[in-house]
Amino acid sequence: MDDDDVGTRDTPAEVDAAFRTLRRVSVGYFVVFLLGVAAFPVLTLTLDWWSQARLVGGMSPGFLVAAFGLYLFFAVLGIAAARLSSAVEHRMLGAAEQGPDGADAAEEDTP
């Protein structure tokens, strides 16, 4: 079954609107990513306790964030960005054509 038989038709304006929305989402998440990564060296340069204090097993807060926190931050940010992008695309694109009685056009063609 190829894509033309699905019964969905997205206009160029709908595709363009979805593209612009997804671009805004990606730029927003990139800014959050950039701020999160840039915060690490800023904290290291401005707060002495960030690299001199000792916590679990003699590790500094900066080391713990570099070893574990950044990976958690990246995972949460990536999952959030993927879920939001999928939701935006699902809501904005791929709506089945509606027949005059409100039924999907793909359902009308089946006997």
List keywords for this structure.
111 residues; mainly alpha; disordered C terminus
Describe the protein:
- With 111 residues, the protein is an all-alpha fold.
- It has one domain.
- Residues 105-111 have low confidence and may be disordered.
- It contains four helices and no strands.
- The radius of gyration is 23 Å and the shape is elongated.
Question: Topology, please?
Answer:
Blueprint: H1 12-46, H2 48-52, H3 61-92, H4 105-109
Helix pairs in contact: 1-3
Radius of gyration: 23 Å
User: Strand content of the residues, in percent?
Assistant: under 5%
Tally of helical runs: 4
Quick one: biggest sheet?
none
How many strands appear in the DSSP assignment? 0
**Anisotropy-based shape:** elongated
Order of helices and strands: HHHH
Mean pLDDT: 82
Number of domains: 1
Class of secondary structure makeup:
mainly alpha
Report helical residue fraction.
Answer: 55-70%
Task: Give the N-to-C terminal Cα separation.
Answer: 18 Å
Low-confidence stretches: 105-111
